[in-house]
Amino acid sequence: MTMQATKVGNKYQVVVPSYAREVMTMIEPGAKVVVIPQDKGTGILKVVSENWVNGAYGKYKGWWGKNSAKYLRDLRNEWN
Length: 80
Hints:
Layout: H1 18-23, E1 32-39, E2 42-48, H2 50-56, H3 68-78
Antiparallel strand pairs: 1-2
């Protein structure tokens, strides 16, 4: 695996190096990414598709009902 340093700009923008873009083919201009902090100096950059973001938002709203604890308790009681 190749590593190359890149700078963080004054607006906290980061340029993804070309070798990383070649491997991470989902990265393109306008792509949505999630940054998952691991500690003070480490993080994970994950590309998410626009369809996933829009499709998942609010999809399961109300799925558990108003009382999720009761729903789970009733569901577990069905197993017995």
